[in-house]
Every structure is written in C-alpha cells, then in structure tokens.
C-alpha cells in the first residue's frame, strides 16, 4: 500500500515517560511488526507551549524574561523530537513525520488530526487523579471529546509490588 493511500495515525508527545511509553507501545503494536509496510502513516506531534503560557505572568519585567523562556522551550522541543526519533530508530521505524507546533497541546493535537486527515490520535496518560485533572485539565480527556477521529489513550501498566 503506498504511503499516500494509508490512514494517518497522529501520536502526541511531550517530555514525559508516559509519552515515551505510548510511542513505544504504538510502534510495537502498529509499526514494527509490519517492517517496511505498516498499516498507518505515522505523524508525531509535539506541542511547544508559548513563552507567555509557560511563564504565566505579565506586566513589568515579563518582556525581558520571554526570550529566555522561548529559547528553553525550543531546546526542550528539539530534545523531545530527538527522543522520539531515537525511539523510532530503536524499533526500526524510519518513515514518519515529526512536527513541533506552538500552542496548547489540546488544540495542537486536535488541529493536527484535521490537518493530516488522521484516522487515529494516540496520547499517553499521565494518570492524574480527579482533582489534579480537574485543575490542570486533561489533554487526553479533551482530545477524546473534541478530536475528529478515534482516540487511543495509552496507559502505562501499574507496577504491582
């Protein structure tokens, strides 16, 4: 099947272990077993926060801080994409598109689904409790309700003692 004919799978990544686990899980189940002919075209997307959202402040002094924050965010984004490329290489998955898009992860991922006409969106689960999820907002929960495709939330198995 030619790459252009394949359905698209968007995988949202950040710099968390849960995100790395989700990418590895997807590669193990949907890409690596099919060697050079996987059933999906893979698009990996990292949402880089805006400097103002990362700092969370405005007013006097904010303008001086923002360029430094932006430099750090760019460095983190490059590291996130590099880690994703390493994971893909380790799994012998060499054909994929990796994008860094500035904005809130919830919106960035839903927009990536529309842009790439994705059939599936995959996100990791941070495993927040109800209170933390209510305060911070859950990217996976938002995407499950707003993305125009099927959404898979990959959870890392709990380690039993």
UniProtKB/TrEMBL annotation:
Question: One short Pfam family name for this protein?
Answer: Usp
What the entry lists under SUPFAM superfamilies is as follows: Adenine nucleotide alpha hydrolases-like (SSF52402)
**InterPro entries from the UniProt entry:** Rossmann-like_a/b/a_fold, Universal_stress_UspA, UspA
UspA domain location is: 9-155
This chain belongs to the protein called Universal stress protein A-like protein
